[in-house]
Amino acid sequence: MFERADETNSARARLRKDAHALEKGLSLPDIRPFFGRAKIFKLIADIDAARSNLSLDPDREIAESVLSAYGQWHHENGYSDAFVEDLRKQFPASEEYAKLGGTIGLVKAEVGANSSGFDATVLSRRTVRNFADKPVPREEIEAAIRVAWTSPSVCNRQPWAVSITQEKSDVARLLKWQAGNRGFSESIDTLLVVLADTKAFVEDYEIFEPFVDAGIFSGVLVNALHARGIGSCCLNLCVSHGVAERIISELDAPQYFFPIMMIGCGYPQNDVQVAISARGPSVIIS
């Protein structure tokens, strides 16, 4: 059975969720002074509890930086009370905090500045099923993953992970669990498996969200690969629960991950033929 969460995972999700709620409040056009006080009390308690768990240090530091930004905004705008002053003492302004959390200015001229380049990248991507016998450097794959890691997610929880397999025998072993790779599997250089992190959402009504967010991540990832000249083919994992568990076991991944997609990658062959995959008209609900 896939685990929904353990205490460390739940703590990480809470830190990300509540810190992001405060960041969001600081980015609104009309910031309400002293907003989110109940969330701040909760976040401070979670920060204190996280100090004994080194694996939570990155998320704890981000949460602290958001509280620092909250106190700094109130100070700079002339809003203060005993609570805010205590917050500023606990989480004083610093260059390190400023890099991690809070808000940054958006340069209007940069919005849409490269829209034509983005459109060209996305519109030129096609699914590739004929890869050249040329190794893809792992660092190129990881660079594309870092770009995809900026994908939007609910409360910035980032509920995804990726496995990278480049050993041919291991690629073949994993592909036996996927039904749509016949005829080109031998040419796949790198196999990615995108995983949904079920620990990031603990309420029953949130059960589908890891899969939605990991799907968004996957879409950005294949375009980031394409921008680097790396072809890709999304391979569905519409499999039984038992097969999903076997995949997770073979990846030696924690049991709270659920595999949602494989992506076959490689440099395209010269003059390769690709499916047109014609799209229907946009469906826009007014």
General description of the model:
By secondary structure, the protein is of the alpha+beta class. The chain has 2 domains: 7-100, no CATH class; 110-266, NADH Oxidase (3-Layer(aba) Sandwich). 45% of the residues lie in helices and 10% in strands. The chain has a 4-stranded antiparallel beta sheet with strand order 1-2-4-3, sandwiched between helices. Helix 1 runs parallel beside helix 3. It is globular and about 70 Å long. The protein starts with 6 loop residues before the first helix and ends in a 20-residue tail after the last strand. The model has no long low-confidence stretch (mean pLDDT 94).
- CATH topology of the largest domain, anyone? NADH Oxidase
Q: How many domains? A: 2
Order of helices and strands: HHHHHHHEHEHEHE
Radius of gyration: 22 Å
- Biggest β-sheet description: 4 strands, antiparallel
Mean pLDDT: 94
Number of beta strands:
4
In whole angstroms, how far apart are the ends?
41 Å
Q: What characteristic shape results from the CA principal axes?
A: globular
Total count of helical runs of at least 4 residues:
10
Strand order, main sheet: write it out: 1-2-4-3
Strand content: 5-15%
Give the full name of the CATH homologous superfamily of the largest domain.
NADH Oxidase
Structural class assignment: alpha+beta
Return residue spans where pLDDT drops below 50 for at least 5 consecutive residues.
none
CATH top level of the largest domain? Alpha Beta
Share of helical residues: 40-55%
- The CATH level-2 architecture of the largest domain is identified as 3-Layer(aba) Sandwich
